[in-house]
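Researcher: We're reviewing a set of sequences before deciding which ones to prioritize for further study. For each one, I'd like a predicted 3D structure that I can look through quickly. This is Sporulation protein. If possible, include the structure in token form so it fits the rest of the review sheet.
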Amino acid sequence: MDNQFFKNIEKKTGVNMKDILDLANSLQNANFKDENTVRQVVRRVSQIANKPVSKETEDKIVQSIVKDGKQLDLNTISKMINRK
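Model: Here's the predicted structure for Sporulation protein, in token form for your review sheet.
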């Protein structure tokens, strides 16, 4: 994609696109039935988005993904983080 496109997204969101792309690549082979893996992803998204997540919110997200079988995507985690 066009570098200007990414620069515009970074400018609007304050999120480094390299961080997002690195996270997306790490998700490709991750085991989302593993609680520790899911916790690491949630913490990484929180860090990238500069949105602290309480232990309670983290637990709810992890439970939703691991136990309830919710699909894990950045949009789902972002919505859960922003609901707190």
